[in-house]
Amino acid sequence: APRHAATYSRGTFPEDEDFSMGAWKEGFRIKILDINEDDMTFDMSGLDVSIANALRRLLLSEVPTVAIEKVFITNNNGVLRDELLAHRLGLIPIKVDPSSFAFPSVATKGATYGSELNPDEVLKFQLKVKCMREAGAGRDQEPINSKVFSKQLEWVPIGDQEERFVNDRPEPVHRDILITRLRPGQEIDLTMHCHKGNNCGERGHAKWSPVATAWYRLLPRIDIVEEVEGEDAEALVQKCPMGCFDMEDLGNDGRRAVVSDKYRDCTLCRECVREPRFSQKVRLARKKDHFIYKIESTGIIRPADLFKQAVQTLHAKASMLLQEVEDLEGQALVDAQADDMEES
Fold first, then answer.
1. Among 288, 281, 260, 263, which residue's Cα sits nearest to residue 2?
2. By three-state DSSP, how is residue 202 classified?
């Protein structure tokens, strides 16, 4: 059997065809297959893999969110050390609109526990919890606050934030995230500052990534180039673990193998072409300009809005690059004219 599945599009390589904006607009398609508050799956076809991958990378690293950046610990005598506790807190996704905040200034980045905070740049939370036993409780009864959850983070409004977020109070996306465990007598008292940021640059961190993951795969294509009938057809159907083949009745007790509606589930595991009797009858391929895209949001921003922001960011970057090129061309023309004047 061949070692690799083919990948094809209108041209084998991008340089096979001259780019045409009109043809691109005519061929580009997006079809949403499934969407909810956290996930979105869609088909995107008619564009190069470089654009599809650029959008994926933008989703992972350049769409901003608000996350816990500073943790001021007054008391922590639990089993989890201060730095580990701060790390776990930082990874809790905070439900708040990032567009309501500006990126932190130098003063905000350097703010300490008692500093005056800018309400347009900082979101403040506190966590005060103590583990204790109920009066008369037995040793086998679970103490109060033995488990500390994200729902116990308390938002502390700054400035006009109470009015700004009266209908959408900032809080953790999920209220049941386990932060740590305590035993009777142990307690935690800390304050947190949240900043707007993203997962790129020298200060980038995964806690600001708005997606749990964003990925794509190429649309598989299965072609039966030579009829597979009778017992061979039944064997071919049984070989595919994803159910990508089905049987079709031909009449007179005849049956042949056909590609089923589940062909999109094909993982190109190549089980169907390992035997010599099928290797020349079945052809596997990927369509290199058709992507099955999946966006899994952390819950801060809806996946459809995430995709829109990624497209807007890509557009802004392309516009900035175009402006830089035009500026360089203009400067080169000025330099050339200056050289001509000196020579004359």
1. 281
2. coil
Task: Average the pLDDT over each of 81-95, 127-141, 301-315 and give the range with the smallest value.
Answer: 127-141
| Confidence check: pLDDT of 221 > 80 | yes
User: Three-class SS of residue 229?
Assistant: strand
Q: Are 6 and 284 a contacting pair, CB within 8 Å?
A: yes
For 36-65, write each residue's pLDDT tens digit. 999 999 999 998 899 999 999 999 999 999
Dist CA 238 CA 280 (whole Å)? 18
CA separation, residue 267 to residues 146, 241, 257, 286, 315 (Å): 45, 9, 19, 10, 33
For 333, list phi and psi in degrees, rounded to 5: -65, -40
Residue 7: per-residue pLDDT: 56
| Run of H or E including 84 | helix 82-90
d(CA 308, CA 297): 13
The order of strands in the sheet holding 65-76 is 65-76, 187-197, 123-130, 154-156
Helix pair 49-61, 303-343: axis angle to 10 deg: 110
Task: Let me know: does 266 contact 242? Beta carbons within 8 Å.
Answer: yes
Tracing tokens 């994200």 back to the chain, one arrives at 150
Q: Is the pLDDT at 4 greater than 90, yes or no?
A: no
Contacts of 316 (CB under 8 A, 6+ apart): none
Q: What is the pLDDT of residue 139?
A: 74
Work out whether strand 282-297 and strand 211-224 pair parallel, antiparallel, or are unpaired: antiparallel
Residue in 321, 270, 305 with CA at minimum distance from that of residue 1: 270
- What does each C-alpha distance from 212 to 9, 95, 186, 280 come to in angstroms? 31, 15, 33, 41
Task: Read off the pLDDT of residues 181-215 as tens digits, 9 standing for 90 and up.
Answer: 999 999 999 999 999 999 987 778 999 999 999 99
What are the backbone dihedrals phi and psi of residue 19, each rounded to the nearest 5 degrees, phi first?
-70, 135
CA 223 vs. chain centroid, Å, equals 33
Supply the DSSP symbol for 251. Answer: E
